[in-house]
């Protein structure tokens, strides 16, 4: 084998008459400008080398190419570009064989589609996830994929951005062979058989009925919601059967170029990197020394059941316990009901001693400090030495719980979001005495469950619920200022929130917050602004959806409109307090809500409870229905203008009075002209 150009990101080597091009740009061989230049040069060299019969393309480091380098997207595109490279490959006389291990995604899979044949290991994944980043494939993906899979499947794959495992990819025709054993040797053996050339663009798209195409399109577009890239991608795939490849490719590239620098794409890129950073803790790296195999869960209510299902589905050996036989029976039924046919079937037991040999206990019992303190002391006696004890509390002081045990270093909070087997967000609550190894074990567990963790310090509500509570409070102030709750919900939905705060309250149950307000009442400043309308609703037994009435009225679980009592309650309260009316339009409502979020987010970072602004963006887009295409509250504030948001914060603090203050961190960041989303970025 002869090889050359070792300082390049693409190595050229030969095995007899076959050229081997190895892309080597750790960690994921992303297609940086350098990679594109080196690949173009290496392909040119292959085409200039006499006597070659085939080219094998492979990636170094156990992966192919994870797509374009997303870090370079803010910069101007410099030639050579992928479409030109693929054109040259199309014009070549010899076949290209792509050998895929790890991932071939985005531009990486487009390079694979530009080859004549695709071989992959059984664990490889391929796909075109561009739409999830607010763009469309930019190097022929929308034109070549439908020629392999047919149009309905191509629309489904491209609009959803699904990462397709190799066996499924084989079934769908995206790859030609799944290889057992040595991938490169298999690719070389394949190349030696002198396969005929197969240029996808010369093939026609397999025919499909319009009804089938439209059904596939509607199904995926419904899920893509506010992402303009989704509709564009579907339209481009349709072009593959309507116009010449050349025209369709030019249109694809034009859309790609336009969307690349759109605010939506920027926001989604921000979240891509934010989600990779959110589980990092400075000074804590690597894996835990402890192995978690057996997981014990206390409580089989909605949360406990969801956590149990998530853990069992991730392959853990799960034991769920309840306080008595009756609750255990109900818990078993609840798990069966939530898990459905997919399972798992778990039998809840009523014997705490069964937790003696588990590696991690997640306590999801009733939210009551007295109950939990007693439980933690008991668990400490039962759990084996070295076992981790976690609480799923959403606001209680986990430091207090840790101190109820003889092993505070092994105690942390694992705050799941409901439904726990579906929601991706998890807060890893860092107690005062928790050891780095316990944190690493908690993060490892979260990762195995497929969750996206953020790190939170101990305070009422941790990161997410603390900030959300302030936002909701602010929305109730806007209501008291004179805007009805349904108008506020509509304005926030128009901004992009999945639901407005009043609709959320009805869904969660007004009684939950009522309990929280009563708990905090003794420590509330007597002059602090307080809106009592929700209390009135609760006093009358109107807890939202579950009672058929809350902020809205429900018929068979469907809202039929605003609760007609609400305007009267509001006017009475406004009159009693002699409040001036403040009229706000939709934009002002959305801005005020955002300002309250951003200010509290900065205070949360200032207090050392949250690590960085981007974690808050992750929390709100993954746990609270904030629009992903706005990148989370901090990124959204930067786009709207941090100074404009600060001005609104100053106004809201002045209007709200006692207990409200402007974050210094917010002021300093704006004064320095820095981006809010970059606070604590490291
Ligand atoms: N650009 C730049 N950096 C990337 C990257 C990319 N496309 N993909 C991954 N990385 C970085 C990550 O930020 C991370 O860096 P860090 O260690 O400094 O945080 C590192 O590579 C490893 O990534 P993960 O932590 O995500 O590792 P996993 O093993 O969990 O996942 C992956 C690997 C499946 C490749 C995942 O990273 C991924 O989904 N990457 C993005 C793939 C993608 O969407 N590609 C399409 C890009 S757009 C495009 O190609 C346009 C084209 O049509 C012209």
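Sequence proposed for the structure above (682 residues):
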């Amino acid at each position: 084998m002869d090889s050359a150009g070792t300082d390049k990101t693409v190595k050229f080597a030969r095995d007899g008459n076959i050229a081997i091009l190895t892309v080597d740009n750790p960690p994921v061989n992303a297609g940086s400008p350098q990679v594109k230049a080196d690949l173009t040069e290496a392909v040119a060299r292959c085409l200039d080398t006499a006597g070659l019969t085939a080219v094998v393309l492979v990636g170094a480091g156990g992966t192919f190419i994870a797509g374009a380098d997303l870090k370079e997207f803010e910069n101007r595109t410099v030639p050579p570009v992928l479409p030109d490279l693929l054109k040259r490959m199309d014009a070549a006389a010899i076949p290209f064989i792509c050998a895929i291990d790890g991932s071939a995604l985005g531009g990486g899979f487009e390079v694979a589609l530009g080859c004549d044949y695709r071989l992959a290991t059984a664990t490889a994944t391929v796909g075109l996830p561009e739409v999830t980043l607010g763009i469309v494939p930019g190097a022929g993906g929308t034109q070549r994929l439908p020629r392999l899979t047919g149009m309905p499947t191509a629309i489904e794959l491209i609009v959803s951005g699904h990462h397709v495992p190799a066996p499924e990819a084989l079934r769908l025709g995206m790859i030609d062979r799944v290889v057992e054993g040595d991938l490169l040797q298999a690719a070389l053996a394949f190349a030696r058989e002198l396969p005929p050339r197969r240029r996808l663009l010369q093939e026609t798209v397999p025919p499909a009925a319009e009804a089938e195409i439209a059904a596939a399109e509607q199904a995926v577009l419904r899920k893509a919601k506010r992402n303009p890239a989704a509709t564009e991608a579907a339209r481009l795939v349709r072009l593959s059967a309507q116009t010449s490849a050349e025209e369709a490719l030019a249109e694809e590239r034009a859309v790609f170029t336009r969307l690349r620098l759109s605010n939506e794409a920027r926001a989604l890129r921000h979240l891509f990197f934010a989600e990779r950073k959110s589980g990092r803790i400075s000074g804590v790296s690597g894996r835990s020394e402890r192995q978690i195999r057996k997981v014990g869960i206390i409580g089989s209510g909605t949360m406990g059941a969801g956590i149990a299902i998530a853990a069992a589905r991730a392959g853990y050996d799960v034991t769920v316990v309840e306080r008595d036989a009756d609750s255990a029976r109900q818990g078993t039924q609840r798990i069966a009901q939530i898990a459905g046919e997919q399972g798992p079937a778990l039998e809840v037991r009523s014997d705490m001693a069964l937790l003696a040999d588990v590696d991690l206990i997640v306590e999801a019992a009733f939210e009551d400090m007295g109950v939990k303190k007693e439980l933690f002391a008991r668990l400490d006696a039962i759990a084996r030495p070295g076992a981790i004890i976690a609480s799923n509390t959403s606001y209680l002081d986990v430091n207090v719980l840790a101190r109820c045990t003889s092993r505070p270093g092994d105690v942390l909070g694992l705050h799941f979001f409901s439904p726990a087997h579906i929601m991706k967000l998890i807060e890893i609550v860092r107690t005062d005495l928790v050891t780095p190894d316990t944190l690493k074990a908690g993060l490892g567990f979260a990762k195995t469950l497929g969750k996206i963790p953020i790190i939170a310090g101990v305070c009422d509500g941790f990161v997410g619920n603390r900030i959300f509570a302030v936002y909701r409070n602010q929305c109730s102030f806007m209501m008291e200022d004179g805007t009805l709750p349904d108008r506020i919900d509509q304005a926030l939905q128009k901004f992009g929130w999945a639901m407005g705060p009043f609709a959320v309250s009805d869904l969660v149950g007004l009684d939950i917050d009522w309990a929280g307000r009563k708990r905090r009442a003794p420590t509330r400043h007597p002059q602090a602004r307080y809106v009592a309308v929700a209390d009135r609703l609760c006093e009358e037994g109107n807890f939202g959806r579950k009672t058929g009435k809350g902020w809205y009225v429900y018929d068979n679980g469907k809202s039929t409109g605003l609760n007609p009592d609400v305007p009267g309650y509001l006017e009475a309260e406004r009159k009693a307090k002699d409040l001036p009316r403040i009229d706000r339009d939709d934009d002002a409502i959305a801005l005020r809500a955002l300002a309250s979020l951003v200010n509290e987010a900065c205070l949360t970072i200032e207090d050392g409870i949250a690590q960085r602004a981007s974690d808050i963006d992750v929390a709100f887009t993954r746990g609270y229905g904030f629009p992903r295409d706005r990148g989370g509250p901090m990124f959204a504030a930067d786009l709207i203008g941090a100074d404009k948001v600060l001005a609104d914060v100053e106004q809201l603090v002045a209007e709200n009075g006692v207990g409200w203050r402007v974050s210094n961190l917010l002021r300093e960041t704006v004064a320095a002209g820095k981006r809010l989303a970059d606070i604590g970025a490291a």
